[in-house]
Amino acid sequence: MRCCVVGSGAREHALAWGLAKSADVVVTPGNAGMAAHGLTCVDTHPTQIDADLFVIGPELPLTQGLADELRAQGKLVLGPGRDGAQLEASKAFMKQFLHDAGVPTAHFGVFDQPEEALDFLVTMVAPYVIKTDGLAAGKGVLVTSDFAEACADVLDKLSGNAFGDAGTTIVIEEGLDGEECSLLVLCDGVRALPLVPAQDFKRVGDADTGANTGGMGAYAPMTSMSADDVAAVMSSIVAPTLAELARRGIDFRGVLYAGVMMSSQGPTLLEYNVRFGDPETEVLVPLYGDSLAQLLHSVAAGELTSVPATTGQSAVTVVLAAHGYPESPRRGDVISGLGDDGQLAAAHEGVVVFHAGTSRDEQGRFLTHGGRVLAVSAVGETMAQARSRAYAACEQITFDGRVLRRDIARAAS
Length: 413
Hints:
By secondary structure, the protein is α+β, with helices and mostly antiparallel strands. It folds into 4 domains: 80 residues, 3-Layer(aba) Sandwich (Rossmann fold), CATH 3.40.50; 68 residues, Dna Ligase, domain 1 (2-Layer Sandwich); 122 residues, ATP-grasp fold, B domain (D-amino Acid Aminotransferase, Chain A, domain 1, 2-Layer Sandwich); 81 residues, Glycinamide Ribonucleotide Synthetase, Chain A, domain 4, CATH 3.90.600.10. It contains 12 helices and 22 strands. The radius of gyration is 20 Å and the shape is globular.
């Protein structure tokens, strides 16, 4: 089988690495770290590539209809068409969809006028949650108990200053209590089956402080989420979602990433993404051994019958980010501790380094070239072992201004 992975981040590096265990893989456009790791990278439009399966990583090409283009050519694709991708492209669309489907979600309002938004905000109780309607790379959400800060954020977003057109419509939600988790669900157009639950860490600083990011790390399986919890998410959230997709005539073949708040009242959906999460992918792929290619092929073909068992291990991913991330990440800092293949110069058992924002200079050195630079993933027989391996590996990789959290999976170890 020949697989084409579309994208250039650590998520796509992880997918390509996992697929390459049992298939031939090409990545477009890929990045310097993938090429160094022995993966074939080409800067070619996916419609010009011959492959048995296309796996689209990022949300933007999905919302632009790439899956539709490829399917029109008769190609097998993991990823929804433009209609299904609206679940992520517009939070206002998603919230109305959830309402129509009867999926439990936070009380909300949708606004494009400052006066109406502020009037609604006055009726809410802290914490306040303000989200851009459009795509914002995971950075378009403010959660605050400070009313003045919430008001300022509403005005900033609706002015277009903060996120451009993506923020000129906003969603204001009630804040929810509980524990947040990420459940990635494979959907083949009819059936849906979950991968093991993961927990990601969105804030830039330890103890969930600082700005929201695309994700600073993750671990799996999420120890506090039981099989009964997963079953509750599937029955109260995913099942009615599939029914509403069918009612609307949307053939969804890909990944539904459910961001869920678990509480004593049961699961509540915070958001849907329509692709593999980042960094959840980097922590999940190592747990599925060499079964990824056949699994994703069955999803795209509408033939999903089961999800293979994991290796039984635990996994932890720690993201290394650039100086100034997430507001103004710096580029061009030299990365030390990596070999010519982009992996650790001194090998560590159970560790793989996935490249996100890296490049190489004329001397072959790896440089920072984005906000999130590397995702360091480790597996272990226990969560504590996986965590220890991941952080030991992180200490071998240095660059000026390196940003990382020190508490990934601490409570689960």
